[in-house]
């Protein structure tokens, strides 16, 4: 009985937190999404979302978020695998994590200089006789900087999953005559899929709502849902439309969470600790 | 459990102590009391030396904060919270603030220096008889360009931007009124147009500009132009003056089809706690020497005739930054189009941005 009582006391902060900072804001966003400019109830915002540029905007947001996630994964998986094989793996991992402690804007501004016409990359290219290239304000620079910023969030869960993988399973696979590729595709990857899913979630969802980088690095040539929300709130002062876009963003996020959700047959349960 | 209780109590005690210390500090430094003047201005829009001078002369203490858009400033003032005594909105924002009852009337008897201001800038349509606002700076929107990177274009017409040789060379400011306005101006329409066909035509015209556009960005324009990363930029006159100060190659032009003329005025918002001090500050800023020093520092055009007499003739006779009244007649002031129309402009601008990729 006492156990039950103390349990409910401990849950108070959690529920207060959830109510104030999760449910209330989402409810407010949902409420505002039904208001027009003068504060009357309307469904126009939703109609507007489906008939105008916003649909195209959503598609392009998804496309760029997909590219960012894909390239992060391509770089992160081998990196994480390599890290688990090194001697001082925690140190090497720390070195990858450290840049993520630095303010996002500072890192972004640094790239304006690095990618500039008179920046180090162009200076390097000129050594090989390649003429000045426009790197800043291109798709390439946008995806490169985004991948750079998000990659620690992809490496970390994959590293954890790989690290917990029982090495005897790999030995067993090889003993049974599996090639390296088969071992990877049939044993290692399926057992670390939960790490990959967690990484995809941590990269894809924030990529959908990136907004400062779209202006500073892509020169507004790439527009995401985040940019549109910012514009609606700060410039147009149309909180209703801004909220409507936010509602769709939340829906998309929930869908992604469901698709990439953890299922109870991951690598970790086969780990050493078991 | 005991330890947790103890640390919670400790934290609460520390918080209470900090609260009292904060309160004491505020009182002794005069924050929120009557000897402070809280000024809310655009970034890099005043010579900081003048703030010290005002403190010394008047005995008031200055609290200085900055904003980066009229909209952000209005939102903050509407919410209350900080007792801003002075704000510096642009003309269309003054209209909105008047409508929303966010301004206090200005007592002209306390501002004798108002006589220093060129009558051209007084009694304008957005604030008849200057009941709520007093001129601070004015300027235009135009094209800043780097002749060293071009083959002889001078941008006397907006049409020059569409030149095929400018591929990937133009920077635009991230403002819907400015960019759509440019499209409208290049077609000879008013930049306050609310006509659907005219706006659509402007968008079609702008879409043809996209191959030439390098990026649509904010204040980073200054650095990019100074570092010669781009050849041409659409920007405000004062920002252009800043760039030209740092890179002497650059030149500025106001296309003859017309462009935007704007005014930034000092106002006393409803939030003011020190109305007396606010008047003293406005009067101080309108003093001939002060206004001249400020204009030298900031680089925008001053409406203060007494100050212009004290300034370098070379600057004040420069038609690029002090266009004559005749030229000014060709320019248009933004009307407050209302939120609905602002939304339309923004959606068109979004469409233009989407078309860039």
From TrEMBL, chain A:
GO BP term (any one): transmembrane transport
ABC transmembrane type-1 domain mapped to chain residues: 58-260
Location(s) in or outside the cell: Cell membrane
Transmembrane feature ranges: 12-34, 62-84, 91-115, 135-159, 198-218, 238-259
Key word rRNA processing present: no
Presence of the UniProt keyword Kinase in the record: no
Alphabetical UniProt keywords: Cell membrane, Membrane, Transmembrane, Transmembrane helix, Transport
Matches recorded under Pfam families: BPD_transp_1 (PF00528)
Matching InterPro entries: MetI-like (IPR000515), MetI-like_sf (IPR035906)
Superkingdom of origin: Bacteria
GO cellular component labels: plasma membrane
Protein family: Belongs to the binding-protein-dependent transport system permease family. CysTW subfamily.
Protein name per its UniProtKB record: ABC-type spermidine/putrescine transport system permease subunit I
Species of provenance: Psychrobacillus insolitus
TrEMBL record, chain B:
One Pfam family named in its UniProt record: SBP_bac_8
Transmembrane segments: 7-25
InterPro entries: SBP (IPR006059), Sperm_putr-bd (IPR001188)
Superkingdom per UniProt: Bacteria
An annotated Gene Ontology molecular function: polyamine binding
Keyword Cytoplasm: no
This protein's UniProt keywords: Membrane, Periplasm, Signal, Transmembrane, Transmembrane helix, Transport
Binding residues for spermidine: 44, 92
Protein name from the UniProt record: Spermidine/putrescine-binding protein
């Amino acid at each position: 009985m006492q156990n039950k009582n103390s349990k409910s006391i401990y849950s108070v902060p959690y529920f207060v937190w959830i109510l104030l900072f999760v449910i209330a804001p989402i409810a407010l966003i949902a409420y505002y999404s039904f208001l027009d400019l003068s504060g009357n109830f309307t469904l126009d915002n939703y109609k507007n979302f489906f008939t105008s540029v916003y649909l195209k905007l959503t598609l392009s947001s998804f496309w760029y978020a997909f590219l960012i996630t894909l390239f992060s994964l391509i770089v992160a998986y081998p990196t994480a695998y390599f890290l688990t094989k090194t001697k001082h793996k925690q140190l090497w991992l720390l070195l990858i994590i450290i840049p993520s402690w630095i303010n996002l804007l500072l890192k972004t501004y640094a790239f304006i200089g690095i990618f500039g016409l008179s920046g180090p990359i162009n200076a390097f290219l000129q050594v090989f006789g390649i003429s000045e290239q426009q790197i800043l304000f291109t798709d390439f620079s946008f995806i490169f900087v985004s991948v750079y910023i998000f990659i620690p969030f992809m490496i970390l869960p994959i590293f954890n999953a790989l690290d917990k993988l029982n090495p005897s399973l790999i030995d067993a696979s090889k003993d049974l005559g599996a090639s390296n590729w088969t071992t990877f595709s049939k044993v290692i990857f399926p057992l670390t899929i939960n790490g990959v899913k967690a990484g995809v979630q941590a990269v894809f969802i924030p990529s959908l709502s990136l907004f400062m980088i779209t202006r500073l690095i892509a020169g507004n040539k790439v527009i995401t849902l985040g940019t549109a929300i910012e514009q609606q709130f700060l410039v147009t002062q149309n909180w209703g439309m801004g909220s409507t876009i936010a509602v769709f963003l939340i829906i998309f996020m929930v869908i992604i969470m469901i698709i990439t959700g953890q299922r109870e047959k991951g690598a970790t349960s086969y780990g050493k600790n078991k | 459990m005991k330890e947790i209780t103890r640390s919670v109590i400790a934290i609460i005690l520390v918080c209470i102590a900090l609260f009292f210390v904060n309160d004491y500090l505020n009182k002794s430094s005069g924050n929120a009391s009557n000897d402070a003047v809280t000024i809310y201005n655009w970034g890099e829009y005043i010579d900081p030396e003048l703030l010290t001078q005002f403190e010394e002369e008047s005995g008031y203490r200055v609290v200085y904060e900055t904003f980066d858009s009229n909209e952000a400033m209005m939102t903050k003032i509407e919410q209350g919270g900080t007792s801003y005594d002075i704000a510096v909105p642009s003309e269309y924002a003054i209209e909105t603030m008047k409508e929303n009852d966010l301004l206090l009337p200005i007592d002209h008897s306390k501002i004798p220096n108002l006589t220093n201001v060129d009558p051209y800038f007084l009694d304008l349509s957005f604030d008849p008889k200057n009941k709520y606002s007093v001129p601070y700076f004015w300027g235009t929107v135009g094209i800043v360009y780097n002749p060293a990177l071009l083959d002889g274009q001078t941008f006397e017409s907006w049409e020059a931007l569409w030149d095929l040789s400018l591929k990937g060379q133009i920077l635009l400011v991230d403002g819907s009124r400015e960019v759509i306005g440019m499209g409208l101006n290049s077609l000879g329409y008013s930049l306050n147009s609310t006509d659907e066909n005219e706006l659509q035509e402007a968008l079609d015209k702008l879409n043809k500009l996209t191959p030439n556009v390098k990026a649509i960005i904010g204040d980073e324009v200054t650095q990019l132009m100074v570092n010669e990363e781009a050849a041409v930029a659409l920007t405000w006159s004062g920002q252009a003056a800043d760039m030209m100060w740092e890179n002497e190659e650059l030149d500025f032009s106001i296309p003859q089809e017309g462009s935007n003329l704007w005014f930034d005025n000092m106002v006393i918002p409803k939030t003011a706690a020190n109305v007396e001090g606010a008047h003293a500050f406005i009067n101080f800023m309108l003093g001939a020497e002060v206004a001249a020093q400020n204009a030298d520092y900031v680089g925008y055009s001053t409406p203060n005739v007494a100050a212009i007499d004290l300034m370098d003739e070379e600057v004040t006779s420069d038609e690029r930054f002090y266009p004559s009244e005749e030229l000014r007649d060709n320019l248009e002031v933004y009307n407050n189009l209302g939120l609905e129309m602002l939304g339309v402009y923004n959606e068109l601008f979004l469409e233009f941005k989407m078309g860039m990729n």
